[in-house]
Amino acid sequence: MQSGRYVAGCLAALLLVGCGGRMKAPGSVNWPTSYLPANNTVTASPSPAPSTGPYVAPKGKGKVNGTVIDMSGRPLGNVKITVDAATGLTASTDANGSFHLADVPAGWQFVTCNYEGQIFPGSVNVLADGDTKMAPITYDNRYNGFGNQANGYFELPIKKFPYEWRITGVSSWSGTIYTTAVDNGGTLKAGTVFRMDTRSEKTWTEIGDQLFGVSRPLRETAAGLAMGPDRLYITDGKAGLFSCNPQKGSPKKAAKAGMTDVTVGGGKVFVKTDSGVQVTDEDLTSFTTLAGMTATGGIGADPTGNLYAVSGNTIKRYAGKAETFISGLSAPIDVAADRQGFIYVLEQTNVKRFDATGQIVGVFPISAAQPVAISCDESGAVFVADQGKAPRPSRVLRFTPASKPGTPQPSPTPYDSFTPDGSSGHDSGNNAYNASPNTGSYGY
Fold first, then answer.
1. Is the model's pLDDT at 121 over the cut of 50?
2. How far apart are CA 286 and CA 284, in angstroms?
3. CA angle 403-152-191, nearest 5°?
């Protein structure tokens, strides 16, 4: 998610066990594998032993040696390599395109490459107490524009006496961003909802009174929210689940405490609760617990009604039954899906994009002090809610839709950041933009 174009790279290929191109252990989940362009040939990395259960990373650490090349096979120097395993391990390629990493946790690890601002991913199965040689990672410039480009941010005004607002959830639909927010000062233990029309108003408007009237039932436990076809669904850990018309209010409440996230897909409403994940219809008439679905983080749904949930360092999917869908993540926070079938997993420092089979197809960094939620709108644009840490305000980062290889990217909108006083702002890639006075105003 840094500035500039995202360039999809070729990940390290995985040695197959009779699978003809993609590693899948018998009876198990999909392993992280390559996004391989046509006619691309790579050398396989060491493969994990076949397993009949979910992938479990081995103990220990090892060394990794690899190279980065372009499409002609020319080595690329000065490519920054980052191991995404909460290790802080980085290296840079030399003039021969080579890099070396030590003390890398054993098992499957994601690798992010940064070449002149272009971000592309890789993966490697690290052998414990040994040297692992990665297949060459290819900088594939044929796929410029395949990724989600940073496209500015929207800062939430922190203070309006007596409140000090911090974002806790985000949902976007048809050019409008909705966020839940709580009073960080804690004086009134309040929660509310903000709305921004990104195409015309360019202002944040607090709509708690509009949605709920004077009762204002949201508390400091206001959590995730989701926009359905014509209803906005809002969760509060103490107050329960609410369904509102985003323009007229008319709230309907499902009086169930312990509800902390919600998502909508395929005519279903899924709710994360203290006891598991439940499903109901759009009118909230009855709730059914989904067997085997556990959620330690956020939940998301695709347009067909498949549910995805953060569960430890994995993503679980419910498509008639619960199964582990993606493994080997690094402290995932939230998950979302777009209409093209891409699955987005939010981590502390980046977003990983997977295809509908669970294969990783992209990694893009974010610049967020405290990311808490992710959402996709109907166009495929991606929004990340950054709660921020004092004195940094809460904000919503925006990224352009991903496109299939060869599909032109949509042009960014003419505004890229908003600042209250018309001074210069920055997008998530720390690129400066100048805002003219009287634009990007903020209101309630």
1. yes
2. 6
3. 110
Residue-wise DSSP of 111-126: EEEEETTEEEEEEEEE
Alpha carbon 358 to chain centroid distance? 14
The CA-CA-CA angle for residues 58, 59, 63, to 5°, reads 90
Angle at 264 between CA 228 and CA 238, to 5 degrees: 95
Q: Report the C-alpha gap between 5 and 76 in whole angstroms.
A: 18
Structure tokens belonging to residue 115? 């070449």
pLDDT at 199 over 90: no
Tokens of 212: 């709920």
Q: Which amino acid is at 333?
A: I
d(CA 40, CA 71): 9
CA 410 to chain CA centroid, Å, is 20
- Could you report the per-residue pLDDT of 210-219, keeping only the tens digit for each? 999 878 899 9
Burial of 36 (0-12, 13-18, 19+ CB in 10 A): middle
- Tokens 């997993």 sit at which residue? 345
Please count the helices (runs of H) and the strands (runs of E) in the chain.
1, 35
What length is written for the chain? 444
Give the pLDDT confidence of 382-433 residue by residue, as tens digits: 999 999 887 788 999 998 887 654 444 333 333 233 222 222 222 333 222 2
Contact at 8 Å (CB) between 120 and 127?
Answer: no
For residue 26, what pLDDT band results from cuts at 50, 70 and 90? very low
Topology annotation, domain 1-144: Immunoglobulin-like (2.60.40)
CATH topology classification for 150-433: Neuraminidase (2.120.10)
How confident is the model over 282-329, as pLDDT tens digits? 999 999 999 999 999 999 999 999 999 999 999 999 999 999 999 989
Domain residue ranges in the chain: 1-144, 150-433
- Rounded to the nearest angstrom, the gap between the alpha carbon of residue 191 and the centroid of all alpha carbons in its chain is 24
